[in-house]
Amino acid sequence: MSDIERTEFQLPEDLPLTRAPEAPVDAHQHPGEQDAETSLRPRSLQEFIGQPKVRDQLSLVLTGARKRGVVPDHVLLSGPPGLGKTTMAMIIAQELGTSLRMTSGPALERAGDLAAMLSNLMEGDVLFIDEIHRIARPAEEMLYMAMEDFRIDVIVGKGPGATSIPLEIPPFTLVGATTRSGMLTGPLRDRFGFTAQMEFYGSDDLTRVVTRAAAILDVPIDVDAAVEIASRSRGTPRIANRLLRRVRDFAEVNSDGHIDLAAAQGALAIFDVDELGLDRLDRAVLEALIKGHGGGPVGVGSLAIAVGEESATVEEVCEPYLVRAGLVARTGRGRVATAAAWHHLGLTPPEGTLGLF
To answer: Residues annotated as region Head domain (RuvB-H) (predicted)?
Structure first.
């Protein structure tokens, strides 16, 4: 069995929770969070909160395939991290009553890596490839034939003596997840029969996510406390669940474990998550942009040096939310702080600031 293949996925009934180390408030999964996240994942489309269009469309695809007795079309899930793409893949396998095989694009460096995984599939299995846009080109080209014809050609030998051995594989459903759909090649994107775009969550849906997670963790929580946590979660369920676990720690240490509004606000203050969901690094970027460079424009490299981080961290972790929150604008000359960013830091924006009327 290939070393890139994980075992069949079985949804656990009871899973011990582990406490995650502190991390920036971003939607990427950090070490130590997998077990806790797995215990909070919904197990069916009915339990899945939010994404109503995706749920309804996917339900039609799966129900139609079951009635015809065939495997569903391949599914592509795109959207920012933390919105439930992996969870949706698990639910697809659960709804179909089949096994789920999981891997990631970066792990498939050679065509042989993919061939080893495909050859171990059973009929009707769901193959989930996370970050599929990062799959190596040789493996991607092999995937074309597997997706369309359910067969692959394995090359044996090198040079003039090389021979191609056709290998039939059972019909399967590929579920690909990507945070950068624009990086997918056209031929790969066109082979997916159903494409879904995951959207950021609204406050009401996130409040339901927090309330449901608190019930699973057996943590009593007030409605206004759940609303407070949801409002600081950047529209992302993974962040909401992470913040809930930190607030739970605060409530257990400082009181009887009951989460009320004061406990939620106190915990989030200790963990440097403000009213907009910004953490220490986000505010450091804003302060460097406004106090250090007069509001910009300034390049991301200069901001990274000012806050002592890598440029990739600022660009991939901080900047997406700052732009979406209307605090930073990306221009051809560099990053510019908006009037909302000045006000958020308690400063008066100068005349001509973007967003100032």
So the answer is: 275-357
Catalytic residue, candidates 179, 207, 211, 338: 179
- The domain total for the chain is 3
- DSSP-assigned beta bridge partners for residue 104: 130
Residue 67 among the catalytic residues: no
Note if 86 is an active site residue: yes
The pLDDT tens digits for 29-85 are 555 455 555 677 888 888 888 888 998 999 999 999 888 888 898 999 998 888 888
Question: Are residues 95 and 122 both part of a single domain?
Answer: yes
- Cross-strand partners of 163: 156
Q: Regarding beta strands 334-337 and 328-331, do their DSSP bridges make them parallel or antiparallel, or are they unpaired?
A: antiparallel
Q: How far apart are CA 128 and CA 170, in angstroms?
A: 16
Report the DSSP beta bridge partners of residue 177.
77
**44, 40, 70: which is closest to 58 by C-alpha?**
44
Structural domain boundaries, residue 230: 203-270
DSSP annotation string for 299-310: -HHHHHHHHTS-
303 is in an annotated binding site: no
Residue 239: both structure tokens together: 């962040």
pLDDT tens for 206-240 read 999 999 998 888 889 899 999 999 988 888 899 99
Residue of 26, 85, 207, 283 with catalytic role: 85
